[in-house]
């Protein structure tokens, strides 16, 4: 797939995510994956959901705004897995186009 | 001519293999160029049985001078403090260690097991293993914290799993050529010349560390191994990226996270499932920070570096 086609594809997926969450898709925002064990638990649940966008959003606890936890504002923008220029989450279990102000419970820095 | 004796306690022979692969100088150079007389070594020694016992007794009695005593592996104390699980030349190895350390001018511990216990001393430590002068971070070990060899130095610790071949031979040469007293040791009795900088010093992934781009899977050439894959390079004291392995590479250059094997806590987290090759986090922040960095500073630095990262940092610049 060319870079342009890939970017278009990602833009469409980004809009799908925005639509799902705007329409009220309930996601597991809490508890945050605040321990290593919790991270393993959430990523283990995500693996079988690789091709299911809605399941990924629910299990990952996606929101369209930054969530504060542990006195840290956990936005995609500051997350280790966020590719700034591509606006993409490269955590293998998610691998989703995102926006800087979004958030999920697998945030880490 | 300096007499060197090398014995092995609770060990896998990894440091022996490393020693035999040394290049600068090589094990042969020690003999031919630096006047070191290798009395006995597990892979090179010729004496067996009674002849070996006779030689060891000549050393412990002082009839044969012992300039350098090199010990590889842990001191095994099980069962019940007798050391009988590791017998050598007719008696527990720990008893030989006690007697040989009394007569040696210099005592050198090679590898993690001899320095701080390493893998054999990992909980629950069934062999009741100790390093020569440390047990993990606790000073003391088998010989006690006040031990000094005849030359007035504590045990010289050359850790690693294994120690790099040239760290071993260069320290042995320094001692054998009368420069042992010039060795500056750190708080864990490691020669500062090797163990002041970090594994990260010279790492080819440093630009990805700077721009906070993480390697998320093994085999990726792009990305830093610290953020997700448990690399301990930023907090491990070793010259692994300055004195390269096989003269050409290192763990991190080959895409393998540093395990921190020159630090007393190795293996970290007692090898609990899920802790190896995975960065441990609390509320999304690494549990172990790069040396000298606090949590607040780390968060600020990471956010700023991430925001400023150039486009190329996200791409695999090694594939064209």
Automatic annotation (TrEMBL), chain A:
Organism of origin: Methylobacterium isbiliense
Protein name according to UniProt: Uncharacterized protein
Domain of life: Bacteria
From TrEMBL, chain B:
Gene3D superfamilies for this protein: Cytochrome-c3 hydrogenase, C-terminal domain, NADH:ubiquinone oxidoreductase-like, 20kDa subunit
Enzyme class: oxidoreductase
Top-level taxon of the source organism: Bacteria
Known EC number: 1.12.99.6
Residue ranges of every copy of the NADH:ubiquinone oxidoreductase-like 20kDa subunit domain listed in the record: 12-174
Subunit structure: Heterodimer of a large and a small subunit.
Name this polypeptide is given: hydrogenase (acceptor)
Keywords: 3Fe-4S, 4Fe-4S, Cell membrane, Iron, Iron-sulfur, Membrane, Metal-binding, Oxidoreductase, Signal
Localization, UniProt: Cell envelope
InterPro entries named among the record's database cross-references: Cytochrome-c3_hydrogenase_C, NADH_UbQ_OxRdtase-like_20kDa, NiFe-Hase_small_C_sf, NiFe_Hase_small_N_sf, NiFe_hydrogenase_ssu
Protein family membership: Belongs to the [NiFe]/[NiFeSe] hydrogenase small subunit family.
Catalyzed reactions: H2 + A = AH2
Domain Cytochrome-c3 hydrogenase C-terminal: start-end pairs: 198-267
Cofactor(s) the protein requires to work: [3Fe-4S] cluster; [4Fe-4S] cluster
Record-linked SUPFAM superfamilies: HydA/Nqo6-like
């Amino acid at each position: 797939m060319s870079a342009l086609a890939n970017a278009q594809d990602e833009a469409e997926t980004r809009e799908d995510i925005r639509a799902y969450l705007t329409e009220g898709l309930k996601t597991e925002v809490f508890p945050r994956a605040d321990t290593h064990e919790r991270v393993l638990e959430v990523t283990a649940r995500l693996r079988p959901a690789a091709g299911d966008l809605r399941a990924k959003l629910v299990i990952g606890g996606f929101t369209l705004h930054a969530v504060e936890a542990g006195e840290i504002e956990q936005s995609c923008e500051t997350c280790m897995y966020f590719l700034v220029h591509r606006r993409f989450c490269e955590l293998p279990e998610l691998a989703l186009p995102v926006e800087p102000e979004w958030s999920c419970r697998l945030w880490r820095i | 001519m300096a007499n060197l004796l090398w014995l092995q306690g609770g060990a896998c022979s990894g440091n022996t293999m490393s020693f035999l692969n040394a290049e600068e100088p090589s094990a042969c150079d020690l003999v031919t160029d630096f006047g070191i007389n290798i009395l006995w070594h597990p892979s090179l020694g010729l004496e067996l049985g009674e002849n070996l016992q006779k030689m060891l007794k000549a050393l412990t009695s002082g009839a044969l001078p012992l300039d350098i005593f090199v010990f590889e592996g842990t001191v095994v104390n099980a069962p019940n403090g007798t050391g009988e699980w590791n017998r050598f030349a007719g008696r527990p190895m720990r008893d030989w260690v006690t007697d040989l350390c009394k007569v040696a001018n210099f005592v050198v511990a090679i590898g993690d097991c001899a320095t701080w216990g390493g893998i054999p001393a990992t909980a629950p430590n069934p062999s009741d293993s100790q390093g020569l002068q440390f047990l993990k971070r606790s000073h003391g070990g088998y010989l006690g914290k006040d031990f000094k060899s005849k030359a007035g130095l504590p045990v010289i610790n050359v850790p690693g799993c294994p120690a790099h071949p040239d760290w071993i031979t260069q320290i042995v040469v320094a001692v054998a050529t009368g420069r042992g007293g010039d060795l500056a040791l750190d708080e864990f009795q490691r020669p500062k010349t090797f163990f002041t900088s970090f594994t990260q010093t010279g790492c080819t992934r440093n630009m990805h560390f700077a721009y906070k781009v993480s390697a998320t899977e093994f085999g990726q050439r792009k990305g830093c191994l610290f953020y997700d894959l448990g690399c301990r390079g930023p907090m491990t004291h070793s010259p692994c990226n300055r004195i390269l392995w096989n003269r050409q590479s290192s763990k991190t250059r080959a895409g393998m996270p540093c395990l921190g094997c020159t630090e007393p806590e190795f293996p970290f987290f007692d090898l609990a499932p899920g802790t190896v090759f995975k960065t441990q986090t609390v509320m999304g922040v690494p549990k172990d920070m790069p040396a000298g960095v606090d949590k607040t500073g780390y968060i600020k630095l990471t956010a700023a570096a991430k925001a400023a990262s150039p486009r190329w940092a996200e791409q695999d610049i090694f594939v064209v």
